[in-house]
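Researcher: Re-running this chain for the archive, since the previous output was lost when a drive failed. Same request as before.
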Amino acid sequence: MPSRRASGQSERLRKVREEFWPDEDPWTGEANIDDGWFKAPRTLPLVLNLIRDKSLTPKGDPSNVYLELLSRQFGDGIVEIQNPKEHAHFAGYTSTRGTGRTWEEHMRSLEALGFIKIKGIGPNEFKYVFIVHPSTAIHKLETQGRLPAGWMDVYKDRRFVTKELSYEDRQVLRNRARIQEVEKSKPTVVGESKTA
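Model: Regenerated structure tokens:
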């Protein structure tokens, strides 16, 4: 449920839309109208800029590969690669070299940066792809001293605006959720009082 502030902002912008573009078809992602959407952080443009930064990826730009992978996961953080050439094509690689070697190189670059993990099975070198939460990948790059100068300040500032959790705050919530899962899975001993 959106906050009152978000609801107020949304209502204000709805009025702007109705005033200036009353008959246009807006891109809203409403569940009852638009299906086939994926969730992405509002910091995604900054993440894509980081991925394509030449200090991190001097031999190309794997940001389209990352975006294509994001669009293929359905909320579980896993993408099953059934046809690598299709993924390469959707990421914009249409030449024979692009659908083979370039896409593979960019997949390996994303893995080296920590944004994905790749699991090969048998002859399928890229059978499953695990998409690492961006805050975790960014935290790792920061601790390695690999972020471009000033990038983290811009990222933090945008996070404050969008209320996206920091890496540290996410870890606290994840650990709390794990503890609650363990507590729920503990068997109840007959005769044991739930209130101690």
